[in-house]
Amino acid sequence: MLPIIFVLPLIQLIILSNAATFDVKNIKFGYIDKDHSTTSRALIEKFKGSTYFNLITDFPSQTLANQAVLKGEIDVVLEVPSYFERDFLKEKNASLGLTINAIDGAAAGLENVYITQIINSFNMNLKVDVTHFSDRQHSSTQITTIPLFWYNKSLNYKTYMVPGILVLLVTMITLFLSGMNIVREKEIGTLEQINVTPIKKSQFIIGKLFPFWVIGLGILTVGLLISKIIFNVPMVGSLLLMYFYTTIYILVVLGIGLFISNFTDTQQQAMFIAWFFMVIFILMSGLFTPIESMPKWAQTITDFNPIKYFVEVMRMVMLKGSGFIDILPQLIKTLLFAIVMNGLAVWSYKKTT
Amino acid sequence: MSISIVNVSKSYNKVNALKNISFDVKPGELFGLIGPDGAGKTTLFRILTTLLVANEGVVKVAGFDVVTDYKNIRKCVGYMPGKFSLYQDLTVEENLMFFATIFGTTIEENYDLIKEIYIQIAPFKDRRAGKLSGGMKQKLALCCALIHKPKVLFLDEPTTGVDPVSRKEFWEMLKRLQDKNITILVSTPYMDEAALCDRIALIQDGNILEVDTPKAIVKHYTKQIYNVSANNMYQLINYLKEYPFSHSVYPFGEFVHYTDTRTNFNSNELKTYLRSKDLSNLKIDKTIATIEDTFMELAK
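YS: structure for the whole thing
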């Protein structure tokens, strides 16, 4: 069992961190060039040069392009209308048609941004070219933004994902193991034998949960090692602080697990309930979707999600180097959860049936 | 009184598991609770071991009330549930050590009590409990239940699923424990084990049918029982049941136990009747009543 507990989550960490990227790559791109001019060809060359797009197909008509989108062969169709170059040069205003397959909404949004960026930069260059030939007085002013990405300079998604996934693994393992544990004793009957002994509730519960607390910290350690060695995730903050927060955080999870254990009779029931909470906790943790973009009521729910705080703290400490004072709000809330959950768990654990 | 049960009732939803049960167990007694599966034996055990609270009635174990003084009871009773309930992934020795520690004692302290039993499983002390044979498991469970020198020992169907030799050994061990001033309440569905108890209570469908010594219980049975056998057991039972004067008919080993409603029963008459039904190899002999016969009669 122990090798399984350690090896499987770490495989997960390695696979998920490499695969769960927000970048959209390998966009299947098609175009309809009705203009056949130097400008339109130059624009399409821009797309061919980009690493985000591949499988660039030229469609003779809109109908054929639509069919290809319908079949899923093409994600994006760019239509260059007739007289594009003429309109552009003469009226300094031309339009392009863009069709994006939005079955995957998130990907479609990103594709739109990429394409707009390419067209914008093309536009700039062209304007410069154009202004060479036209009146100097008309040269347009340009505003350029130069973004600086703090704490993750190259916007490396792994730097962002690895701490989050590590949080999931620590949580899942400790929740499932603790949720399953006392139920298992109920199932095999040892609990009945234990209940007839003078052992105190608190002694029994501490005895049951302490090993999982150690295992949780063990997984954190191995996970951090992998983050450093394989993913080279920066660890700016204090490791000690990270461990200190995790020790309290695991208490919350163990409390939840024990609470589930008390109200179920079989491992199957416990598994299902643990899984139910896990899914809600994960999807509402801000790990995959930003909490800021959730509706107000959902944001209120996330305030009661311990994973949210753990993800925040991990990212803050690892990437930003936050200190004790910075994570104090999260720490206090987590501590509060730990007290409440374990209090409930001990209270609801009965030595009689 | 070591155990006193007064007017205890317990129901699960709509099922009445125990119906107004009362009996006492004297100190140092080996008391048997005899009844078929589903009679309410385990429910009663769980009430006595403070795992379950009765709907009605007063129960005292070793002088403590099971509801208000359950903490003291847990210190001074040993309980061996019907299902093997030790940690299967701990070794024999580890299990014993674990339970000794929980009760705040050590193996050495009460070793003399378990010595005779433990010696038999000692060769396997490094084996995991889950890998032991049925009889070995029972011995280990008994050791664990005895490790804190309990005043009262509860054994719920300790010999169910155990081979006949181990069963016999197990009962010999109980007899020896009794000499060490331990009150033992044991439940069993086997009627032959009942005779080994000091006193027994017959229980069925949550009712106590009779409480007495095995000998006295047998004496309650006044009818003469006949062992009947023939070449076809199944037909024999059917025809005996059809016989107008039959009082009770049920199989008992290789024979059928038969009682007649008349006092002036003539075995030849029955033989003639059975012969007329094409049965051969007929044998009809008198026999003495056993606890099983009594139980069947009372449970009627």
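YS: worth flagging: The first helix of chain A runs from residue 2 to 19.
IM: good catch. Also Residues 148 and 269 of chain A are 49 Å apart (CA to CA).
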